[in-house]
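User: Can you help me understand a structure? I only have the sequence.
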Amino acid sequence: MTISAVIHTDQNAYTAECLEVAVITQGSTLDGVVRNLKDALALHLEVEDLAALGLRDHPRVKLIFDVPLSLRG
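Assistant: Let's start by predicting it. Here is the structure, written out as tokens:
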């Protein structure tokens, strides 16, 4: 199973929120939030039973970018 994380942005920061596990982090840049997400997930998962979560030994993270869409109208 892959862990999915949604990355939201506003004018000042990026926020990443995992959908399958309780991990949320932020960063001032896109690279920063991805780095912080990897660190936060590693810390969170080192005390979890990966098999119970449906994860393998080296899970992957799928990033989903949530960006506003401006419609004309």
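Now, to help you interpret it: Residues 30-45 form the longest helix (16 residues). Strands lie at 3-9, 14-18, 24-27, 61-66. Let me know which part you'd like to focus on.
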